[in-house]
Amino acid sequence: MVEAEILVTNPSGLHTRPAKKIVDASKKYSSEIFISKGDKKESAKNLIKLMKLGITSGNKIVLSCEGSDESDALESIAALIRGLTE
């Protein structure tokens, strides 16, 4: 398992459009991918569950990946989250 702590800098947080981008990117990998905020942890491959985390700008989240392509998944999705601007 690999993990990265990420500061969400997107001014509008992870509302529907950016969350959908994360879900679509996550589904390209066979690894299990989770995003945690505080004590809540949800699959990054499920839009509804991801939205339930209520991630806003300035939140610190933990992205964790486990599986055969975990390093690629972590690198790609972390870069996506850090680059969100909408």
This entry's quaternary arrangement is single chain
What is the rounded Rg?
11 Å
What would CATH call the homologous superfamily? HPr-like
Helix content: 25-40%
What shape does the CA trace take? globular
Structural class, by secondary structure, is: alpha+beta
Strand content: 25-35%
Order of helices and strands: EHEEHEH
**How many alpha or pi helices?**
3
Largest sheet, spatial ordering of strands: 1-4-2-3
Distance between the termini: 30 Å
**Poorly predicted residue ranges:** none
Query: What is the overall pLDDT average?
Result: 96
The structural domain count equals 1
Q: Main sheet, how many strands, which sense, barrel?
A: 4 strands, antiparallel
What is the annotated CATH architecture? 2-Layer Sandwich
- The CATH class label is Alpha Beta
Query: What is the total tally of β strands?
Result: 4
* CATH level 3 topology: Histidine-containing Protein, Chain: A
InterPro entries: HPr, HPr-like, HPr-like_sf
Organism: Teretinema zuelzerae
Domain HPr: 1-86
Keywords: Sugar transport, Transport
